[in-house]
Amino acid sequence: MSEAVHEFTLEPLDWQPYVKPVKLDEATPEQLEALTVTPSNTKISNYVLVLANEAEMLAERTPLFNDIMYSEGGLSRGGREIGALAASFVNRCIYCASVHANRYIQLEKRPEVVDEIFRRGLDADLPDFEQALFNFGVDLTAHPDNVGVYQFYHLREIGLDDLEILDLIHSIAIFGWANRLMHTLGEPHLKE
């Protein structure tokens, strides 16, 4: 078994659960129904199989996740990934940070943005658009009670409208929740 990863990386990671994942051949009808919709409509991960232990919750969570991260209109996919990356960075969720950093690079073709975040952390010096998204994600995750006019002013200054700001808030919030859940249910490891 590989060692747990504790530093931010772009390397492909596995998430190894502490909690026993549901085995598809032993799943209840409710679990199988909840598993019919997967995040990003791809393979069923160990994380989702762990969440399937609570089928009712998973049946609500996955469509919500897909709507937040993949719906058309509003904030760009890359912008949503920066929000999710900011939350994952603050929460030190190495696995989620790797996934969102790689997706951002894939979508936006801007590895230098992620390199700067991974190199300088909260002191990252990013282009104005990415800086505003990242700062908002950091503030909303680390100090939600202090988010107000100042942060929204910066989002408006880079041209975001209400729907784009709402998309950013949702992407940050769902990963604030997911990061904390992933920490308690397992840990990231380098893929073997």
Automatic annotation (TrEMBL):
It holds the Pfam family CMD. It comes from the Bacteria. Keywords: Oxidoreductase, Peroxidase, Plasmid. InterPro entries: AhpD-like, CMD-like, Uncharacterised_peroxidase-rel. GO terms for molecular function: peroxidase activity. Gene3D superfamilies: AhpD-like (1.20.1290.10). Residues 59-120 form the Carboxymuconolactone decarboxylase-like domain. NCBIfam families: peroxid_rel. This is Peroxidase-related enzyme. It comes from Sinorhizobium kummerowiae.
